[in-house]
Structure formats: structure tokens, C-alpha cells
Amino acid sequence: MKNFTYHSAKDSKEATKLSSSNSAFLAGGMTTIPSMKLGLASYKDIIDIKGIKKLSGIKVSGKSVTIGAITKHAEVANSKEIKKAIPSLADLAEGIGDPAVRNRGTIGGSIANNDPAADYPSACIALNATIHTNSRKIEATKFFSGMFETTLKKGELIEAVEFQIPNKSSYQKHPNPASRYAVVGVYVAKNKNDVNVAVTGAKSCVYKDENLSKALSKNFSVSAVDGVKVSSSGMNTDIHASADYRASLVATYAKKAIEAC
Amino acid sequence: MASLVGSRVERKEDKKFLTGKGRYTADITLAHQTHAVFVRSPHARAQIKKVDTSKAEKASGVVAIFTGKDLADDKIGGLIAGWKIVSEDGTDMKVPAHPALATESVNYVGDHVAVVIGETLADAKNAADMVKVDYKVLKAVVDTESAMDSEAIYKDIPKNLCYDWLLGDRAKTKEAFDSADKIIKIDLRNNRLIPNAMEPRASLGDYNSSTEEITLYTANQNPHLTRLVISAFNAVAPEHKFRVVAPDVGGGFGSKIYPYAEDVVIAWAAKKVERPVKWVAERTESFLSDCHGRDHVTHAELAVKSDGTVVGLKVDTIANLGGYASLFATVTPTYLYGPLVLGLYNIPAAYCNVKAVYTNTAPVDAYRGAGRPEATYMIERLMSKAAMELGMDQAEFRRKNFIKQFPHQQALVHNIDSGNYDAHLDKALEIADYKGFANRKSESESKGKLRGIGFSTYIEACGIAPSAAVMSLGAGVGLWESAEVRFNPTGNVTVFTGAHSHGQGHDTVFAQIVGDKLGVPLENVEVVHGDTDKGPFGMGTYGSRSLAVGGTAIDKACDKIIAKGKRVAAKMLEASESDVDFKDGEFVVAKSNKKKTIGEIAFACYLPGQYGEVKSPLPEGDEPGLKETAFYDPINFSFPAGTHICEVEIDPETGHTKLDKYTAVDDFGTIMNPMIVEGQVHGGVAQGVGQALYENAHYDETGQLITASYMDYTMPRADNFPELKIDYTCTPATSNPLGAKGCGEAGAIAAPPAVMNAVVDAIGTDISMPATAEKVWKACKDSKKSNSKAA
Questions:
Q1: Interface membership of A177 toward B (CB under 8 Å)
Q2: Which of B176, B270, B571, B775 has a beta carbon 3.0–4.6 Å from B311's, enabling a disulfide?
Q3: A245 contact residues in B (CB cutoff 8 A)
Q4: Which of B706, B774, B781 sits opposite A241 (nearest CB)?
Q5: How many CB contacts within 8 angstroms connect chain A with chain B?
Q6: Same domain, A195 and A142
Q7: Residue A252 and residue B698: Cβ atoms within 8 Å?
């Protein structure tokens, strides 16, 4: 690991001020720190945002659940309010990594990193989330822009993620047997005005499966999935799963999600 | 007195492990210690044109940088292959030079090129990045099956062939095949595994310039052998000036049997820089450079009569040795494999041909079971396939071919002393509720799931020793074991064993043996191992040998203690030696109330003469002290056997295989501590299931290890398992007085075929290990397609 300067920011403003083209915000550090240790990433400045109290916490209103950026996965998984409002979101958090990861990793860190196999991005898409940053609000569909890429600007800091409470929803994933990241994860949400089927793990970036979403909007049932052919085009192939297998898993896990709704 | 042997005595060593008080090599910090980082090859195969350390040497905190040239200048020898194998045509095996730091070429990703020694680990790492190695990258040979058709890695080793070995009789086997009604054929791949001991390898070298002694602390399974090899072959230091300490070691599974390049370099470097040098592997280094296991490609054929009698077996195997021949690499796929291909069946004619090949991958050596899992996987998959093709019941087809009379001389090498295979099969069938399988299968089918049952009736050869036998087969050392039992003057006992515990529980089991034998409370017995400066020369721990061989050595040393004790007691009690009996820690004169405790005798032995009222003269000719040494070399291997039955439920939509039921009934001979044996079975089965369903070392075509971290290499986890149903039968071993057969490897040997036979039974087609979800999904999909076509 190369040497760097460590800063602990007291608020978002200071964090932004400290940031530069050669800095990184440190939330849970579940990706940043291993990348630095392996020599895959190095920064001049590490700006720790874990001390910014305002970024932590869970707020539930009648329509939405708002989770502070540095709220840990374990807090989401164990939140009684979230279990009540959006149980699938608590389930998702409970299935991330292992206890050590869940006790350090944060929702803001997860979506800012936008790992193609991360769980949270699918929730953002399925639940029509809004990403609150220190300067604006971004619709989830306009936030995830590519593999490990988002539309966040340099120095822009996620403060919270606001999820719309669906009528019903479920997240089902086929975990990588080694890492337990999603080989394929399918988040199905029946919202007030639409049905969203968000898929993670299958392609280079989380996406909304338009065909499945449309079919389920008309007929929210397992049989509706059978009528949709999930194409393997653009899907990842690696030692754990071929594109064809992933395509098949998308349909299979969409069904599992509908059954679990 | 209640017997300690056979009872569930809690492990003496667990307190330190569970409270973090273990002392592993990485925990040891010496004054003025430096830190080493190895510069490793990023290429699978390349010529080294130049190693430029000039920039790195100027980096801050660098103490020294050494390359292969420095080792060569100091006449430090290379790593050796310790077991000579002779090919079928009478020629000796071919072994490439294996310098501890590469000089001319690198032959796998992770091969050692230079060592950087720094004041701190960060200094060493930083400088290691600055070592510039100019490589001419060559096309790597990676695949086991095609290695013989690929370009030769070493110019004097044509076809990359180390040896082409034959065990058995081709002509007699052909006759058997000619007489058969049916030939069953199978093609198998035994996947390459990475051992993944919890504690990564580590070495700490320390040199004392005044005494010229080197001490090497290392995570190792047999410190004496490591000292011998590094002394005799690498010429780092003479044995009497070289101490090897293997302190607490966190798992070995075979991967820590042998001295590695790092051990040689660290011991030598400590002398060069005259400061302690410490190296601790990072996990990725473990993945890349620990010796891997298995990696066979096999074609086998079984000749059977229509009534189900097996009459012959042919086995042709290609075994991948990796880039070099590691210490026991050459024997693992030959004498630890070939004799076991017959399983526990009466097969009158057989041969086993093994071609061992070099490839540009990490060296492959002994890994839990070493050869026996490969043999068992082959014969048990083949037996299941034969039963299926003959339309016979899996259990009854096996039973029909079991060896029934003991001792039994097999067609290949082994003379099996004892066993009762019907007994463990029957018990396992009952525990597994074999009769209820059909109902469970239809229940699964009603949920859209597939259910399969798999058998593995296995045998293994343990208690690895008989020196005369192994040396006649090419071993470079005899494999006896030693023990010293030392009574201290105050009546407690210190036991020195040449075996090494790295999780097995020797401190407890050996103390149980001594406690019972000498009538001393368990807490008054301390077991010492892992230090060449303590206790006699020993051969270490591998091949499920510690109890059968090491335990027996302790038992024999206790016999000598008792014999001396009787002489001393007779003298003190003024009785004839033949009238003195020893029982429950007391020497008693027959038909009298005269007795002495063994503690009193020990005291007397250390204080011979008269002191006040205490009179304790030693018998004439007996020396003071009460300490005895025994070296034990058994007459034969021991042969644990058993029946494992596995039941899986498969979701054809996802390919997910759920291990639903697992039954293990093993015959380990006499069991000393059932709790420890259960632990060994649990661990072994977990590793075997890991091989069958999850684990696979995956190299890409350029020789890069893709599964070099836990992000990609799948270890089995607790939530992959149902509660294992474990039971035992017992036919004591006749080759050692304890009757012990060994239990350390059985699970890893028995489980892979049990699981895979269950998977194949469920999906109806053959697939290779590991049976990953995708492979199973694809097999289900393809068989559905072909079924619908057929319809």
C-alpha cells in the first residue's frame, strides 16, 4: 500500500473541500482498502466520512424509506422499521457478504462503487430510489452509468438513499459460491404505478429488465415470466457462470422473487 | 481406574487455541528482526534474462537483496524429489533442477526469483516492487491431458514426462478382460485443489554468529525431516548446528510436510545478514505457491462377469506434477495411488499405469489422502457405473466383490490384515435409511427436484511407515517413529514425540495413552513435539500415521519404563522381579501388601541411595533416572475402511445441489478418543465435499491462476452441510499393539465419490468435479433436451 494522508471530515462540506482528483472518500472501506492493499488503487488523500453523523440513520415515512449514506448493512438488515416497510430491503442487506462486511460496509459506499455484482444497486432501480447528494438529487435510473461507474461528479458526496415503499417486493440472488456476490440477483417490486425487475450480476452494470417489467405489469405472475425470453446478449461470462446460464438464472430468480412477494 | 483410552477426553490444547494463546511462527518476534518479501514470477513460463536489483537496493530500509546467483555462489543446493520412481521401461524418473531462487527460468506463476529483506515489511515490499526482472516469456504448458504433446518445458525431459510407471500385470489383466462378459469404461478428471491451511506458511530464521547455529521457526509438519533435507541437500548448515522449530501450526493437510524454497532461503539469509529474517505468506502467496493437490486425468476399465463378479481392472492415469517435482510429488500418484485402485474388492487381476507430467503450474504434492482419494474416486465411480450398467443394486454389487477373508494379499502390493466390510456397509445402510430412499425420491420429484444416492465403500493404507517396504519402493528415508517418555523426579511425565500436531489433538490422545499405561493422571502428562532440539529424531505427521506409528512408539517406551520400574520396585520391596506386577500406577508384590507407586519409583530412580530414612538403592546394573526412548517401525501399513452414503437433492432450474443426508460408518480400528475422531471425520468429509462440489484450482491457458483468492476459490462452508451421521465399526489393526488404523484422511478419501455418485444418480449423466451449479444445470438441460428428442 502506498502512503497517503488520512483525513477525518466533520461534515459534508469539509469532505468535499478536502477532495481532489487524487482522493477517495472512505465509508466502510470494503472495496477501497483491499484495492489499495493489493496495489490496484492508490490515493494521495483518504477522506474518512464515517464521523459525519448526519450521513447515518434510517427514516421511514408513509411513502419512503431514507437511509443515510454511511448506514451499515447490518443496521439496515436489523432495522425493525425497514423490515416492516420494505422487508425485501432488509433481506437484501442481510445477504451481503459476511458479518464482518455487514458490520462495516455502507449503503453509500456500495452504490458509489457500483460493483456489477453488488446487491444494493438493484434495490435502487427496483424501488425507484432517489440518490441524495450534497448538491442534488439523482434518480436511480440516471445514477448507475457503467461498470464501477456512476454519474457522481468528482467531490460529490452521497448523503442518503431514498427508496419508495412498494406494494410488494422481493430480492432473490444466486450467490457466487466463493464470494457470495450476486452471480445474478433479481429485485422484483410491484410499485404503486409500475412493476420493476432490476437485475444485478448479469451484465457489466445493474439494469432494469424492460421485457420482464412490462410483462409483469400486465400480469404479475410466475407464468408471465415464462412468456418472456431473457436474452444472454451482453451478459457476463466468467469461471462461475456463462452468459447462457446467467440468462436462465434471471428468469428463474425472477420467478422465485414473484413467488416470494 | 477408569480408562482414558476410548473416552471423550476434552482436548488439552484447545484452551490456548480458543483463547488466542497459540504461538505460531508469525507470533514470534526476535530482537533486530528483519522482514522478507519474495519477488515472484508473474509468468507461468519464461527465461530469466536479467535480474536488476540496483534500484531496489537503494530504496530506504533495504537490508539485503538476494537472487539465485547468490545462492549458487554459496553452493546452496536446490529442492529435491525424495522418492525415486522407475518407469516401466526400467529408466529412472526425470527431475528438473529446482533452485530455491530461480536462475535460468521460471516455471509457474509464483515461482521464486529474488528475496528482498527490509527493516520493515513495508520497506521490503516497496523495494520488491523495484526489482526489475527481464523475462523472455515462453508459451506455457498448462493442461494435464495434453502436456505430453506440448513443447518440452525442460530440454532434457522429453514430452514433459517425469516417468511412465506401471504397477501390476498387463498380460494377466488382459486374460481377465478376455474372460469377462462386460467391460465398464469411465473417464475421470480429479480436480486440482489448493490446500488452504488456515495459517499461511511462515518462516523465521535466526543465526548466532558465535555458535554458528541457525534456528528456523517454520509452519511445518515434520521439523526433523525439514532439518535433514535442508542440511543434507541444500547444505545450509550441518544438522548439529541447525535447529528447526515447528511451533503451533494452524493446519497442514500435507501442504506443510516439505521444506519449501522459502524455508531454505530464510534460513540461509539469516546467516548472510546476521539478523533474524521473517517471512509470512500472504493469502495469495499461499494460493500461488503452496503445493497443490490431486490433478489427475484417468481412463479406467472394469471387467465383470454377468453375475456381477469383478475379474479385472485397468487404470491409465496422467498425473500433473506442476512445474517441479516436489518432495513427495513422485510417490503420491504411484505407490500411494496405484496399490489402492483395487479398493476393498477382491479383484484378481489389475494394472495401473501412471504417466507423471510437468506443466507450468504450481507443484503438486501430497494433500489430505495423497493418492488414495484419487484411487478411491476412480474405483468407486467405476463400481457405481458398473452396478448401474449391470442393473444391480449399488450396495449388493459392492458387497458381492468385497474382500471377505483376512489377511488378504491383493493383486497389487498390499496385504490387508483385518477388516469386516459387510459390517460397516450394513450399519451405514441402516443409518442412511436406504430402504426409504425411493419414497424420498418421489417426494423430491413432486417438488420438481431430483434426488440421488451415492455410495463410497473405501479403503486406505495408513500408518505410513514400514521402512523396509517403503525404502524397497524408492523412499529416500525410513518412516518409523520415535518417542521418549521421561518421568520427572516429582512424578509427572514429559513425552517427546517425533510426530507433529497441527490441529490433530496429539497432546490429548498421546497423554491418554501414557495416562492409562503408566497410571498417571492426564494433567500430569505433557506432550512435547515440533522442536529438533527436544526429543529424538522423528518423522512427523502425514498419512494418518501419528497414532498407529507415533502412538505405538510411545506405548513401547512406556513398556520400557514399566520394565525398569519393576526391577527398581523389586529391589526396594525386597522381592523377586517376577513377583512384581504393575497395575494402575502401582508396582505390587504378588500375594502381599507391599507396593510402590510409579511416582515413588521415579523419585527413587533420580535419588538413588539413602537420604535420612529414605532408602532407594537401584538394582545393580541399572542407571539412575527414569527415561526411555523407543523407535517403532511397524510390520505393515494399517487399512482403515468404511462406507459413506450421500444423498443429494438437486434443483434442475438453478443446478443447485443440496447435500441432504450424509452417513459415514468407518472402521478405524481401536478408537482412542471418539470426540477427536468425529472432528477428523467432519473435517475430512468437509474437504471431500469441497472437492466434489466447490473447490477447483483454475489456471487459464497462459498459466495464470484465476482462483487465487477466496473471491473465486470456493471453500466449503458450514451452511453447505447437513448434520453428518457418523458411526463406527471396529476390527483392530494387527500391525500395531494399539490396534489403531488412522482416521485423519478417511473423510477426504471417501466423500468425493459418495457425493459425485449421488449427483450422477440424480441427474442421470456423468459430470466432472466440482459439480458446480452451472455444470449441473447444463447437464439437466441437455438430458431434458435429449429426452424430449428421444420422445
A1: yes
A2: B176
A3: 655, 774, 777-778
A4: B774
A5: 40
A6: no
A7: no
Looking at the complex, report in whole angstroms how far the Cα of residue B773 sits from the nearest Cα belonging to chain A: 9
A242 touches chain B (CB under 8 A): yes
CATH number at residue A256: 3.30.390.50
Predicted confidence (pLDDT) at residue A162 exceeds the cutoff of 90 = yes
Stated as kind and residue range, the H or E segment containing B73 is helix B68-73
Tell whether A40 is within 8 A of chain B (Cβ).
Answer: no
Under an 8 A CB cutoff, do B654 and A178 touch? no
Would the CB atoms of A178 and B710 count as touching at under 8 Å? yes
Q: Nearest Cα to B177, choosing from B321, B347, B428? A: B347
Q: Among A255, A257, A155, A253, which Cα is nearest to A202's?
A: A253
Last residue of a domain, one of A164, A180, A200: A164
- To test the contact with chain A by mutation, choose from B720, B772, B774 the residue with the greatest count of A C-beta atoms within 10 A, namely B774
In chain B, where the domains are located: 14-24+32-138+201-280, 140-190+292-391, 417-461+636-791, 481-632
B673-699, pLDDT tens digit by residue?
A: 999 999 999 999 999 999 999 999 999
How far apart CA A76 and CA A66 sit, in angstroms, is 11
Q: Does B60 touch chain A (CB under 8 A)?
A: no
Hey, is the C-beta of A241 within 8 angstroms of any chain B C-beta? yes
Contact A178 B778 (CB under 8 A): no
pLDDT tier at B212, thresholds 50, 70, 90: very high
CA–centroid distance for B644 within its chain: 20
Q: How far apart are the C-alpha atoms of B154 and B91, rounded to whole Å?
A: 18
Nearest to A79 by CA among A100, A93, A69: A93
d(CA A155, CA A134): 9
What mean pLDDT is predicted for residues B645-663? Answer: 98
Beta-strand ranges (E) seen in A27-79 are 45-48, 58-60, 64-68
Whether residue B271 is predicted with pLDDT greater than 90 in this model: the reply is yes
**DSSP secondary structure string for all residues of A83-148:** HHH-HHHHHHHHTSS-HHHHTT-BHHHHHHHT-TT-SHHHHHHHTT-EEEESS-EEEGGGTEEETT
Predicted confidence (pLDDT) per residue in B362-376, tens digit: 999 999 999 999 999
pLDDT of residue B66: 98
Place of cell 473447490: B695
B122: closest chain A residue by CA: A1
Residue B608 has a pLDDT of 84
For testing the chain B interface, which of A179, A180, A238 should be mutated: the one with the most B CBs within 10 Å?
A179
Whether A174 and B654 lie within 8 Å, measured CB to CB: yes
**Residue B247: which residues within 8 A CB-CB, separation 6 or more?**
B23, B24, B25, B27, B28, B217, B530
- The chain A residue lying nearest B779, using CA atoms, is A245
pLDDT of residue B614: 67
- ipTM reported for the complex surpasses 0.90: yes
Q: What's the mean per-residue pLDDT of chain B?
A: 96
Q: How many CB atoms lie within 10 A of CB B129?
A: 15
What is the third-level CATH fold of B140-190+292-391? Aldehyde Oxidoreductase; domain 4 (3.30.365)
- Statement: residue B791 has pLDDT above 60: no
Q: Is the pLDDT of residue B611 over 80?
A: no
CATH number attached to the domain at B417-461+636-791: 3.30.365.10
pLDDT of B319 over the 60 cut: yes
Mean pLDDT of A65-79: 98
Contact B644, B428 (CB under 8 A): yes
Amino acid occupying residue B606: Y
Interface contact A174-B774, CB threshold 8 A: no
Model confidence over B46-73: pLDDT tens digits? 999 999 999 999 999 999 999 999 999 9
pLDDT for residue B789: 64
Q: Point out the residue among A174, A177, A179 whose CB comes nearest to the CB of B694.
A: A177
Q: Test B777 with A178 for CB contact under 8 angstroms.
A: no
